Amino acid sequence: MAEWQDPHKLTEGEFLDQVHSFEFWFEAVEGYLHERPFGFDPDTVDEEMDDRRKDGLITTLCNYCIGEVAALEASSGMISFAPDRASQIFLSTQVVDEGRHLEVLLRRLSMLGVKDPEAEMNARANRSLLRFKERLLEFVDSRDWEAAVFAQNVILESMEYTVFRNHAQTGDPITRQILQGIVTDERRHMGFGENDLGRRLKIAPHTHERLDKIKRELDSLVLTTFKQTMGELGIEGPDAPDLASDYLSAVARLGFKS
Protein backbone atom coordinates (compact mmCIF):
# COMPACT_ATOMS: atom_id res chain seq x y z
CA MET A 1 0.00 0.00 0.00
CA ALA A 2 1.37 3.43 -0.95
CA GLU A 3 2.24 5.87 1.79
CA TRP A 4 -0.61 8.30 2.49
CA GLN A 5 0.13 11.95 1.77
CA ASP A 6 -1.31 15.14 3.19
CA PRO A 7 -3.58 16.52 0.41
CA HIS A 8 -2.21 20.02 1.03
CA LYS A 9 1.24 18.83 -0.08
CA LEU A 10 0.15 17.36 -3.41
CA THR A 11 0.51 19.13 -6.74
CA GLU A 12 -2.75 19.99 -8.50
CA GLY A 13 -2.35 17.06 -10.90
CA GLU A 14 -1.60 14.63 -8.07
CA PHE A 15 -4.55 15.96 -6.12
CA LEU A 16 -6.99 15.44 -8.98
CA ASP A 17 -5.66 11.93 -9.65
CA GLN A 18 -5.52 10.76 -6.04
CA VAL A 19 -7.72 12.58 -3.55
CA HIS A 20 -10.93 12.05 -5.48
CA SER A 21 -10.43 8.28 -5.47
CA PHE A 22 -11.62 5.54 -3.15
CA GLU A 23 -8.10 4.11 -3.18
CA PHE A 24 -6.70 7.28 -1.60
CA TRP A 25 -9.54 7.20 0.93
CA PHE A 26 -8.76 3.58 1.88
CA GLU A 27 -5.11 4.47 2.44
CA ALA A 28 -6.02 7.57 4.44
CA VAL A 29 -8.31 5.86 6.92
CA GLU A 30 -6.70 2.42 7.31
CA GLY A 31 -3.98 3.55 9.68
CA TYR A 32 -6.26 4.96 12.38
CA LEU A 33 -9.23 2.62 11.94
CA HIS A 34 -7.32 -0.65 12.09
CA GLU A 35 -8.00 -2.33 15.44
CA ARG A 36 -9.74 0.82 16.71
CA PRO A 37 -13.46 0.10 16.87
CA PHE A 38 -15.37 3.29 17.60
CA GLY A 39 -12.23 5.36 16.98
CA PHE A 40 -10.00 4.35 19.89
CA ASP A 41 -7.86 1.50 21.18
CA PRO A 42 -10.24 -0.70 23.22
CA ASP A 43 -7.50 -1.27 25.80
CA THR A 44 -7.47 2.44 26.69
CA VAL A 45 -8.52 3.09 30.28
CA ASP A 46 -11.14 5.80 30.57
CA GLU A 47 -10.21 8.80 32.69
CA GLU A 48 -12.17 9.66 35.81
CA MET A 49 -13.80 13.09 35.68
CA ASP A 50 -15.63 15.23 38.18
CA ASP A 51 -19.23 16.13 37.40
CA ARG A 52 -18.40 19.60 36.10
CA ARG A 53 -15.78 18.40 33.64
CA LYS A 54 -17.95 15.54 32.44
CA ASP A 55 -20.92 17.85 31.91
CA GLY A 56 -18.77 20.25 29.88
CA LEU A 57 -17.45 17.39 27.77
CA ILE A 58 -20.96 16.08 27.12
CA THR A 59 -22.13 19.52 25.97
CA THR A 60 -19.10 19.83 23.71
CA LEU A 61 -19.56 16.38 22.19
CA CYS A 62 -23.27 17.08 21.61
CA ASN A 63 -22.29 20.10 19.56
CA TYR A 64 -19.62 18.13 17.71
CA CYS A 65 -22.44 15.74 16.77
CA ILE A 66 -24.51 18.65 15.44
CA GLY A 67 -21.59 19.71 13.25
CA GLU A 68 -21.18 16.17 11.95
CA VAL A 69 -24.90 15.89 11.21
CA ALA A 70 -24.65 19.14 9.23
CA ALA A 71 -21.71 17.79 7.22
CA LEU A 72 -23.39 14.40 6.71
CA GLU A 73 -26.61 15.93 5.40
CA ALA A 74 -24.81 18.52 3.29
CA SER A 75 -22.26 16.21 1.67
CA SER A 76 -24.92 13.60 0.84
CA GLY A 77 -27.16 16.28 -0.67
CA MET A 78 -24.34 17.76 -2.75
CA ILE A 79 -23.70 14.51 -4.63
CA SER A 80 -26.77 15.05 -6.83
CA PHE A 81 -25.50 18.38 -8.22
CA ALA A 82 -21.73 17.90 -8.09
CA PRO A 83 -20.11 19.24 -11.29
CA ASP A 84 -18.33 16.01 -12.27
CA ARG A 85 -18.00 12.32 -11.44
CA ALA A 86 -14.72 12.78 -9.56
CA SER A 87 -16.41 15.19 -7.15
CA GLN A 88 -19.30 12.78 -6.70
CA ILE A 89 -16.87 10.00 -5.82
CA PHE A 90 -15.04 12.21 -3.33
CA LEU A 91 -18.29 13.30 -1.68
CA SER A 92 -19.37 9.67 -1.36
CA THR A 93 -16.22 9.03 0.70
CA GLN A 94 -16.96 12.13 2.76
CA VAL A 95 -20.49 10.89 3.50
CA VAL A 96 -18.97 7.70 4.92
CA ASP A 97 -16.47 9.75 6.96
CA GLU A 98 -19.15 11.99 8.44
CA GLY A 99 -21.39 9.05 9.27
CA ARG A 100 -18.51 7.35 11.05
CA HIS A 101 -17.63 10.53 12.94
CA LEU A 102 -21.20 10.80 14.13
CA GLU A 103 -21.25 7.16 15.19
CA VAL A 104 -18.06 7.32 17.27
CA LEU A 105 -19.10 10.57 18.94
CA LEU A 106 -22.51 9.14 19.83
CA ARG A 107 -20.74 6.08 21.22
CA ARG A 108 -18.53 8.31 23.36
CA LEU A 109 -21.61 10.08 24.71
CA SER A 110 -23.06 6.70 25.63
CA MET A 111 -19.87 5.82 27.48
CA LEU A 112 -20.25 9.05 29.46
CA GLY A 113 -23.71 7.98 30.61
CA VAL A 114 -25.91 9.81 28.09
CA LYS A 115 -29.07 7.73 27.59
CA ASP A 116 -30.79 9.84 24.93
CA PRO A 117 -28.20 11.65 22.74
CA GLU A 118 -30.84 13.30 20.54
CA ALA A 119 -32.55 14.86 23.55
CA GLU A 120 -29.21 16.03 24.93
CA MET A 121 -28.19 17.49 21.57
CA ASN A 122 -31.44 19.45 21.41
CA ALA A 123 -31.07 20.67 25.00
CA ARG A 124 -27.38 21.61 24.74
CA ALA A 125 -27.24 22.89 21.16
CA ASN A 126 -25.11 25.92 20.43
CA ARG A 127 -27.51 28.35 18.73
CA SER A 128 -24.79 29.81 16.52
CA LEU A 129 -23.88 26.34 15.30
CA LEU A 130 -27.52 25.54 14.59
CA ARG A 131 -27.82 28.71 12.52
CA PHE A 132 -24.65 27.76 10.64
CA LYS A 133 -26.12 24.33 9.88
CA GLU A 134 -29.36 25.93 8.69
CA ARG A 135 -27.48 28.28 6.36
CA LEU A 136 -25.30 25.49 4.96
CA LEU A 137 -28.31 23.35 4.15
CA GLU A 138 -29.98 26.32 2.46
CA PHE A 139 -27.02 26.48 0.06
CA VAL A 140 -27.39 22.74 -0.57
CA ASP A 141 -31.15 22.96 -1.10
CA SER A 142 -30.64 25.75 -3.64
CA ARG A 143 -28.01 23.59 -5.44
CA ASP A 144 -25.43 26.36 -5.10
CA TRP A 145 -22.23 24.36 -5.54
CA GLU A 146 -19.72 27.11 -4.84
CA ALA A 147 -21.49 28.38 -1.71
CA ALA A 148 -22.07 24.83 -0.42
CA VAL A 149 -18.44 23.76 -0.94
CA PHE A 150 -17.21 26.98 0.66
CA ALA A 151 -19.50 26.74 3.69
CA GLN A 152 -18.91 23.03 4.23
CA ASN A 153 -15.47 22.04 2.97
CA VAL A 154 -13.71 25.29 3.79
CA ILE A 155 -15.50 27.04 6.67
CA LEU A 156 -17.12 24.15 8.57
CA GLU A 157 -14.19 21.78 8.05
CA SER A 158 -11.71 24.50 9.05
CA MET A 159 -13.74 25.19 12.18
CA GLU A 160 -13.91 21.52 13.12
CA TYR A 161 -10.25 20.92 12.29
CA THR A 162 -9.22 23.84 14.49
CA VAL A 163 -11.42 22.91 17.46
CA PHE A 164 -10.81 19.16 17.31
CA ARG A 165 -7.05 19.52 16.94
CA ASN A 166 -6.82 21.83 19.95
CA HIS A 167 -9.23 19.75 22.05
CA ALA A 168 -7.20 16.61 21.31
CA GLN A 169 -4.17 18.21 22.96
CA THR A 170 -5.91 18.49 26.34
CA GLY A 171 -8.68 15.90 26.18
CA ASP A 172 -8.98 12.62 28.04
CA PRO A 173 -7.26 9.60 26.38
CA ILE A 174 -10.35 8.17 24.67
CA THR A 175 -11.70 11.47 23.37
CA ARG A 176 -8.18 12.40 22.24
CA GLN A 177 -7.85 9.29 20.07
CA ILE A 178 -11.30 9.80 18.56
CA LEU A 179 -10.57 13.42 17.68
CA GLN A 180 -7.13 12.67 16.25
CA GLY A 181 -8.71 10.27 13.77
CA ILE A 182 -11.41 12.75 12.83
CA VAL A 183 -8.86 15.53 12.33
CA THR A 184 -7.09 13.43 9.69
CA ASP A 185 -10.35 13.23 7.74
CA GLU A 186 -10.99 16.96 8.12
CA ARG A 187 -7.66 17.75 6.48
CA ARG A 188 -8.69 15.71 3.45
CA HIS A 189 -12.11 17.36 3.28
CA MET A 190 -10.52 20.82 3.54
CA GLY A 191 -8.05 19.92 0.80
CA PHE A 192 -10.91 19.05 -1.55
CA GLY A 193 -12.74 22.32 -0.86
CA GLU A 194 -9.66 24.51 -1.18
CA ASN A 195 -8.57 22.83 -4.41
CA ASP A 196 -12.02 22.98 -6.01
CA LEU A 197 -12.63 26.63 -5.12
CA GLY A 198 -9.03 27.63 -5.86
CA ARG A 199 -9.44 26.46 -9.44
CA ARG A 200 -12.83 28.13 -9.78
CA LEU A 201 -11.59 31.45 -8.44
CA LYS A 202 -8.81 31.49 -11.05
CA ILE A 203 -11.35 31.01 -13.84
CA ALA A 204 -14.02 33.33 -12.41
CA PRO A 205 -12.38 35.80 -9.99
CA HIS A 206 -15.67 37.68 -9.55
CA THR A 207 -16.85 34.67 -7.51
CA HIS A 208 -14.48 35.79 -4.75
CA GLU A 209 -16.69 38.77 -3.89
CA ARG A 210 -19.80 36.62 -3.48
CA LEU A 211 -18.01 34.06 -1.34
CA ASP A 212 -16.41 36.79 0.74
CA LYS A 213 -19.89 38.04 1.65
CA ILE A 214 -20.84 34.51 2.71
CA LYS A 215 -17.68 34.25 4.80
CA ARG A 216 -18.38 37.54 6.58
CA GLU A 217 -21.95 36.40 7.27
CA LEU A 218 -20.79 33.10 8.76
CA ASP A 219 -17.68 34.36 10.59
CA SER A 220 -19.63 35.61 13.59
CA LEU A 221 -21.33 32.24 13.97
CA VAL A 222 -17.98 30.44 13.80
CA LEU A 223 -16.26 32.75 16.28
CA THR A 224 -19.16 32.60 18.74
CA THR A 225 -19.06 28.81 18.54
CA PHE A 226 -15.31 28.85 19.27
CA LYS A 227 -15.80 30.98 22.35
CA GLN A 228 -18.60 28.88 23.76
CA THR A 229 -16.76 25.62 23.09
CA MET A 230 -13.70 26.78 24.98
CA GLY A 231 -15.93 27.80 27.91
CA GLU A 232 -17.61 24.39 27.97
CA LEU A 233 -14.20 22.71 28.10
CA GLY A 234 -13.01 25.06 30.83
CA ILE A 235 -10.24 26.43 28.60
CA GLU A 236 -10.37 30.18 29.09
CA GLY A 237 -8.12 33.10 29.91
CA PRO A 238 -4.57 33.78 28.69
CA ASP A 239 -3.80 30.06 28.25
CA ALA A 240 -6.68 29.48 25.82
CA PRO A 241 -5.63 28.74 22.22
CA ASP A 242 -6.31 31.43 19.63
CA LEU A 243 -8.85 29.44 17.65
CA ALA A 244 -10.00 32.49 15.71
CA SER A 245 -6.49 33.05 14.37
CA ASP A 246 -6.11 29.40 13.37
CA TYR A 247 -9.46 29.45 11.56
CA LEU A 248 -8.80 32.73 9.77
CA SER A 249 -5.40 31.45 8.63
CA ALA A 250 -7.09 28.44 7.07
CA VAL A 251 -9.61 30.45 5.05
CA ALA A 252 -6.89 32.98 4.15
CA ARG A 253 -5.27 30.32 1.94
CA LEU A 254 -8.01 31.12 -0.58
CA GLY A 255 -7.42 34.84 -0.29
CA PHE A 256 -10.18 35.65 2.20
CA LYS A 257 -9.14 38.13 4.87
CA SER A 258 -10.65 38.84 8.27
CATH architecture: Up-down Bundle
Question: DSSP strand (E) fraction?
Answer: under 5%
What is the terminal separation in angstroms? 41 Å
Given helix and strand content, the structural type is: mainly alpha
Explain what this protein looks like in three dimensions.
The chain is mostly helical and 258 residues long. The protein has a single domain, classed as Ferritin, CATH 1.20.1260. Helix content is 74%, strand content 0%.
Characteristics:
258 residues; globular; mainly alpha; single chain; Ferritin; 10 helices
List the helices and strands and how they pair.
Blueprint: H1 12-18, H2 22-33, H3 51-78, H4 85-111, H5 117-124, H6 127-141, H7 145-170, H8 173-203, H9 207-232, H10 243-252
Helix pairs in contact: 3-4, 3-5, 3-6, 3-7, 4-8, 6-7, 6-9, 7-8, 7-9, 7-10
What can be said about this structure in brief?
It contains ten helices and no strands. It is mainly alpha-helical and 258 residues long.
